[in-house]
Amino acid sequence: MIIKSSLHLLGLVLNLAVVCNGGITSPFVRKAEKTVDMPYESDAFQVPHGYNAPQQVHITQGDHKGKAMIVSWVTVDEKGSSKVLFWSEGQKKRMAEGKAKTYTYHDYTSGYIHHCTIRNLEYNTKYYYVVGIGHTERLFWFVTPPEVGPDVTYTFGLMGDLGQTFDSNSTLTHYEENPLKGQTVLNLGDLSYADNHPNHDNVKWDTFGRFIERSAAYQPWIWTAGNHEIDYAPEIGEYKPFKPYTHRYNVPHKASGSPAPFFYSIKRASAYIIVLSSYTAYGKYTPQYQWLEQELPKVNRSETSWLIVLLHSPWYNSYNYHYMEGESMRVMFELWFVQHKVDVVFAGHVHAYERSERVSNIAYNIENGKCSPVVKDQSAPVYITIGDGGNIEGLATNMREPQPDYSAYREASFGHAIFDIKNRTHAFYSWHRNDDGVAVKADSMWFFNRYHHPVDDSTSSQS
Ligand SMILES: *[C@@H]1O[C@H](CO)[C@@H](O)[C@H](O)[C@H]1NC(C)=O
Ligand SMILES: *[C@@H]1O[C@H](CO)[C@@H](O)[C@H](O)[C@H]1NC(C)=O
Ligand SMILES: *[C@@H]1O[C@H](CO)[C@@H](O)[C@H](O)[C@H]1NC(C)=O
Ligand SMILES: [Fe+2]
After folding, report:
1. Dihedral angle computed from the Cα positions of residues 294, 255, 59 and 346, in that order, rounded to the nearest 10 degrees
2. Family per UniProt (predicted)?
């Protein structure tokens, strides 16, 4: 009797513990399974048939406002043509010429990696394109974004730390089949995880490229560099950071005045997207610092309502993985994000999901005696960690207890998210775990724009 009621009491206390500090720690427990890479012969990595057939085809935005596309692919038998033939329905065909390069990495030599920028595209138009001209031609298509404007609806997908396991495949399939229909992927970095294999086995970069082609050849993936892109390995004679990544994934950094492909910006529909690099110097006087300082005042919210930042290592993270790794960058830039009313910051790195309250940690200084430095702040972004793409390293399950006040929702499950912009004031955000059917929203929130509609949108205040 006594035992039973005290157990009952314990149950109550445990239940309370789940929700009372800060936000929600999801009670959902995913069954523990090892995350393993799909085998080389897997259907997900299929090599296209035909002599010198282009493989690993992927596209990304090629200019600042969405009227150009960078088309990239790899040929392996010989260099072949770097030309792209492209047209829209009823329009005459045009040809653009790119360039191809190879690189070596320890004992690996890459295929010919082609990049070709096609320009002067019309907005909101379906284009067909062909690569592999002269050998095995392959046809793909994409749709350009609508013209930049404050109320343009547009749907972004979010994936981070994807890798190439069976779980990665499940994440990508869920994204593809999500009825919310993402139009462009914002990728938070850590792509292939080649560096988890002996000598950073760069064949894994090739299989990763073939894996994502089924999505990335048809809609742009916007790239952020993560730590698994560094590939700095002096022990095997590889001294040039980001060598495989920069050869394979081009971005339009020059169009935003950036001196390096690790930090840049694009406008797309009603969003202004700033990509930062957690692994490129950001201290005062560095190129990234100077670039961002000039960049933020350029954002015109009457033109692009939504200000979104992508980076790899999260600033607000309550898991016992990579805890506080983002601190030094937060210290450098957080004040600017609050001043410029960034709507949301997406990060990866931690292999789990977490959404923060709108908080900042800028009031605190070492003299003012404020010992709870993180405060709710309606000018601050929401911070979302979406590093749960499903890579070979597995899930981050170990959380800090109690859940800190800044953390609104956290769960260690694989998944992806959707940021669905409706107009200048509203965007619907949802997170979708792989363990559910494709239409299930495991976490969601209506975002109110910080510039046009700076009303409290926290999920805890709404409930
Ligand atoms: C990967 O996902 C696709 C699409 O759902 C499926 O057709 C394919 O069989 C999967 N491959 C593996 C190795 O799981
Ligand atoms: C901001 O964008 C609006 C809408 O395109 C435009 O009318 C205005 O001139 C721009 N402001 C600046 C300072 O460029
Ligand atoms: C913006 O979108 C939201 C959500 O769909 C809607 O409730 C609101 O009325 C829209 N605002 C305008 C001005 O259309
Ligand atoms: Fe990472």
Report:
1. 0
2. Belongs to the metallophosphoesterase superfamily. Purple acid phosphatase family.
Give the model confidence (pLDDT) of 201-254 as tens digits.
999 999 999 999 999 999 999 999 999 999 999 999 999 999 999 999 999 999
- Grouping H, G, I as helix, E, B as strand and the rest as coil, residue 196 is helix
How close is the Cα of 272 to the center of ligand 2, in Å? 14
**pLDDT tens, residue by residue, 320-340:** 999 999 999 999 999 999 999
**Residue 365 tokens, joined:** 């200084």
**Best residue for ligand 3 mutational test, from 270, 419, 422, 445 (most atoms within 8 Å of Cβ):** 422
pLDDT one-digit tens code per residue, 49-89: 999 999 999 999 999 999 999 999 999 999 999 999 999 99
- Mean pLDDT over all residues of the chain? 94
CA atoms within 13 A on the CB side of 311: 26
Q: Which two tokens stand for residue 146?
A: 């609508």
Question: What pLDDT, in 10s, does the model give residues 119-177?
Answer: 999 999 999 999 999 999 999 999 999 999 999 999 999 999 999 999 999 999 999 99
Closest residue CA from atom 8 of ligand 2: 302
Beta strands in 119-167 (DSSP E): 126-131, 138-143, 154-159
CA 247 – CA 249 distance, rounded (Å)? 6
Distance CA 340, CA 336 (A): 6
108: β partners: 105
74 Cβ contact partners less than 8 Å away, ≥ 6 residues apart: 54, 55, 56, 110, 111, 112, 113, 114, 206, 209, 248
- Where do runs of H (alpha helix) occur along 324-449? 327-339
pTM of the model: 0.95
Q: 86-98 in b/e burial notation, b at 16+ Cβ within 10 A?
A: bebeeeeebebeb
